[in-house]
Design goal:
13 helices; Dihydrodipicolinate Reductase, domain 2; binds nicotinamide-adenine-dinucleotide; alpha/beta; 2 domains; six-stranded parallel sheet; about 35% helix; single chain; nine-stranded mixed sheet; Rossmann fold
Length: about 425
């Protein structure tokens, strides 16, 4: 979806709520004025994600991708197939020395983001850093502070912030269409070893960096990052405490990050957001279930469901069980019908945007970054959403490692005003 259609699809939204729930969309306010302007972008780490971003940047008339830096020649070769005119470097510091480059995309493995992002800000570049921002909470705070000190634009790879179905549904959530949101159940399940093919064994740690503690925190930094941000966007505040547990229960193949994690994030008023991820069963896939008193949202599926939808008849075998239960317990004064199992509603729901989702927000996210690089204006709250998404992953991971509930540390808090408060 391009920007024009995107803005049209949001046309039905109230400007006030939109400004409160998704203020970073203001980036596009200058899009017509800057129609003839261009910026020069360098990409550090044009691997799998980097090249996906490149597929949008290379099509954007306001952007010229002029350089790539990567320590792995095959990644440079692949990127040159998309933009053959770009310069290439093995050392990202040489790319940063090019004063004609306005902004950089950092799409390297997690453990390398810290130094690269600090160096990029110091070199005066605007920065888009893939999620999670950094490997530790302290590093994440340092990068955020560097962004503030240098005044350079800072975006992170949270594409749901630009996904029309999320934006639309958050407007509805904050307009109380689904009643009080008391919980969010987020999960990301896959069935696979999460490995990439390695041309020679000495490249294992470079290519499969996600599977090793030295370079990743596994499912928490790679997957939870997106979904925890969605949960806080819906609940409208940040959690104060997290507890969690994790283990390697299936893929005992030499990796040392968990393949099975579950966390509970608690808010100051007792509401909760759960996060679970396993990579040995994909039946329930990926979702952030937003649970309101009058409705439910499943934004990944692109649907919402009202509680008031007519009760569907229970499947025959459940009815049979219930009848049997009634016979057994009917005469029993202390049990009765409260023992009946709740059967999940059969409700087809409605599409948030009237049809099944076709894309995510990645193209618009890159378009917004380009726009911000051209104007030099940091959009409201975008860096802060990315900051807290990363910090919540990292504190969740830490709670798992320490095996105890952890409060969100005071010293990691940054100024943040969610949802027009
Ligand atoms: N937003 C999203 O939905 C999303 C999706 C996938 C990945 N990502 C993020 O993108 C980043 C990259 O993931 P990926 O799957 O593309 O990994 P990848 O391994 O495919 O690509 C990383 C690239 O960085 C290069 N690299 C490694 N160290 C480097 C260094 N010091 N200097 C320069 N280049 C270096 C590698 O050679 C490789 O080409 C990660 O932070 C990941 O979390 C985000």
């Amino acid at each position: 979806m391009d920007r024009r259609n995107f803005l049209k699809s949001l046309g039905m939204m109230g400007a006030t709520t939109l400004a409160a729930t998704s203020p970073w969309l203001r980036t596009f306010a200058t899009a017509e004025e800057t129609a003839r302007e261009r910026c020069r972008i360098g990409m550090i780490g044009p691997g799998s994600r980097g090249r996906f971003l490149l597929s949008f940047l290379a099509q954007n008339p306001k952007c010229e991708v002029v350089a790539f830096a990567d320590i792995y020649q095959p990644s440079l070769d692949e990127a040159l197939k998309v933009v053959p005119t770009a310069k290439t470097y093995k050392d990202y510091r040489l790319l940063l020395e090019d004063k004609s480059i306005d902004g950089v995309i950092i799409a390297t493995p997690l453990n390398t983001h810290y130094q690269i992002a600090l160096d990029a800000f110091d070199a005066g570049k605007h920065v888009y850093c893939e999620k999670a921002i950094a490997y530790t909470m302290e590093q994440t705070l340092d990068i955020y502070r560097k962004h503030k000190e240098t005044g350079r634009v800072f975006f992170t790879g949270q594409q749901r912030l630009f996904d029309p179905r999320y934006i639309k549904v958050m407007e509805m959530v904050h307009d109380d269409v689904f009643g009080d949101i008391n919980a969010v159940h987020a999960f990301w399940n896959r069935n696979g070893d999460w490995r990439r093919e390695v041309p020679s064994p000495d490249l294992e740690r470079l290519i499969n960096w996600r599977l090793y503690k030295e370079s990743s925190k596994g499912l928490m930094t790679e997957l939870a990052c997106h979904q925890l941000q969605v949960g806080t966007w819906a609940i409208g505040k940040l959690p104060v405490r997290v507890m969690g547990t994790g283990a390697i229960t299936h893929w005992k193949d030499g990796r040392d990050v968990y393949d099975n994690v579950h966390c509970i994030y608690e808010f100051d008023d007792g509401r909760q957001m759960t996060y679970g991820s396993v990579i040995s069963n994909k039946f329930y896939g990926l979702e952030e279930q937003i649970l309101g008193t009058t409705g439910t949202v499943e934004p990944e599926r692109g649907k919402f469901y009202f509680e008031s939808y007519g009760p569907a008849p229970a499947p025959a075998f459940v009815q049979m069980l219930m009848e049997w239960e009634d016979k057994v317990w009917g005469a029993n004064t202390f049990a009765g019908s409260s023992w009946d199992p709740e059967v999940a509603a059969i409700n087809p729901g409605e599409y948030i945007l009237g049809k099944a989702p076709e894309t995510d927000g990645t193209s618009l996210l890159t378009e917004a970054f380009v726009e911000a690089v051209i104007t030099g204006h940091q959009p409201p709250r975008i860096a802060e959403e990315g900051y807290y998404a990363t910090q919540l992953c990292l504190i969740g991971h830490e709670a798992i490692v320490q095996g105890q509930p952890l409060p969100f540390p005071e010293k990691m808090k940054i100024p943040y005003k969610p949802y027009g408060t």
